[in-house]
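subagent[fold] <- orchestrator: predict structure for attached chain, return tokens only, no commentary.
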Amino acid sequence: MSLTLSEILEKKLPKKINSIALIENETLAAASDDGCVYIIDWNGNEIARYCGKAPMTSVAGFGDRIFVGSRGDAVYVLDTKGDLLETVRTRYSEVISPVSQTEFVGCSDACAKLGVGGSRGWVYDIGHVGKDIAVGGDKVYVPDAVWRKVHEVDLDSGNGSMMISFKDRPFSVDFRDGRLLVGTSRGIALFNGTEEWWTKPLGPQVTLAKFLDDYIVAVNLANKKLVVLDMKGSTMLEKDLPTKPSALAVSKGVLAVGFYDGTLKVFEVHSFKEEAVPEVEELTRTEADDEISQLREIAEGSYLGTPVAKEIIAEISEIVEELEGGNNISDMIRSVLMKVEELTNTASADWRQVYANYEEAERMLEGVLEVIKRLRERIGEVSGCPPPEDLLEILRLTNVKEFTRRIAELAPEGTDVKERVKAGARVLKRCLERYYLLPSSEEIAEVEKMLEDVKQQKEVVKALLESGL
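subagent[fold] -> orchestrator:
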């Protein structure tokens, strides 16, 4: 079976798209950072928009109702024409999922079952919700990006448990036929109940993943790729994306992707049978973690037989120690950005407290940039690195002579073989540091942009304080 994608819509919205819902009659709703939710048909026509007072963070359809979550302690219920039917005031408004036309589950640093008329049922405590939640049968599944758990909560009683624990942060969940799909800060994992079937690394940032017919669709914020997998975890299709994705939605052979720059794309998914062809193994950057984890074993194993093994084994061991925690900087950036958003979106009538929150947010963001600066200074300028896939190819080699030869080729010419191999090992280390330790330019730009916004808002609050208002 082979898959293809055909693009049926591209539209630009003013700011980052946080969530998308594919609804009836070839229309969709997109929740944007500009504080609006847009209802758009597949010809790109804007049917309606509704704007609140804070960024819209989550959107989902149920029948002829559209539920919209926000950072403004409010959930809005619209009809498919974009008319406001109800505003539910609640702090559990960041991520929502309707369970009927009159009830929904809303989450932020806790989850609650709420009624459209303002009634509140149970409340279930969590660290902080990820990017979405999933309702399956009589349960709701919640990714907890702080406690690194997925919670399973009973929809009727609100009784729940920490169903699965993760080393990485879970951000996205989807549930179908007893199977739970989880997107983490490293990739995706598929479970049957609590039994893990398989995991697949996709990149060092937030992964969004959904079931689509007999496939799994995923995007990772770091690698700017859309991936379609079968239920065994094999890659069926991989598509380069123009920029950093921020939202994913699927429905009946259609998928939609939202981006940080406000671009919205919708694709139709086509499948067809084809004659079997020999599989060709492809090396991708996202496979690096598996290869890096084997470096110490390689260093202490077959390469001990090479004449220069004792000289290069220390270099290889140092590479392992450096890269085993290679995603820590991205984890730190995500954690700080979430905390900054929490600080700067906390409602308070005390302007001094608001100002203090902005000062703390500014300090945290400047601290992140200082860490990045020191990391850059330690690694230094690294130029002339081979592509990541070439480095992975070297790490995969099992022939001792071939491995030694390829390591030597990384070093400048003009020295003897022994010195070239030692120098090549140092080049390998620095190039891997460059690719896997330094944050991406998009991550740095996001921190810098948020710092600029925080400073501007802090000055506004300062002026209010000084005016005595």
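orchestrator: received. Logging for downstream: The longest strand covers residues 2-12. Residues 185 and 205 are 5 Å apart (CA to CA).
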